[in-house]
Design goal:
4 strands; alpha/beta; single chain; four-stranded parallel sheet; 43% helix
């Protein structure tokens, strides 16, 4: 994981030099702690991102400060970290707040997963859903 926003900006700049990369359609993605960092980047460098894919998110950015087009959030009902913070209600509250700010949030809650997806089937569904989300843009 990059250690600073400067590192992320450098990777972003290198990526958009590729003629196959559309700079207006770059998403930030993270899982668990890196999803928190991705959420931070949405606020710190909003001009870089079209949206985000946040998996097993534990930190929720202030939706009033977000300038992205769309977000995919995925979490497992059995996520112990999420339960400590308020559970699935926390996810739906973020989704509602984002909608009020004009940001659609696709929310996926896997009933058979925890914080880490240990099932190959659940992980496969997560990957499929992420690809479908990004392809729909």
């Amino acid at each position: 994981m990059p250690s600073s926003e400067g590192d992320v900006a450098a990777v972003y700049q290198a990526a958009i030099q590729n003629p196959n990369v559309d700079a207006s359609r770059v998403y930030v993605m993270g899982s668990s702690a890196s999803a928190g960092y991705a959420a931070h980047l949405l606020q710190a460098t909003p001009e870089l991102w079209r949206g985000a894919v946040l998996l097993s998110l534990l930190y929720f950015p202030d939706t009033s400060e977000l300038k992205v087009s769309r977000i995919l959030m995925d979490s497992g009902v059995g996520d112990e970290y999420l339960k400590q913070e308020g559970g699935v209600t926390l996810l739906t509250q973020f989704q509602d707040a984002a909608a009020l700010s004009g940001i659609p949030v696709t929310l996926s809650i896997n009933k058979s997963a925890g914080h880490i997806y240990r099932s190959k089937i659940a992980e496969g569904e997560r990957v499929k859903q992420t690809i479908e989300f990004l392809s729909a843009d």
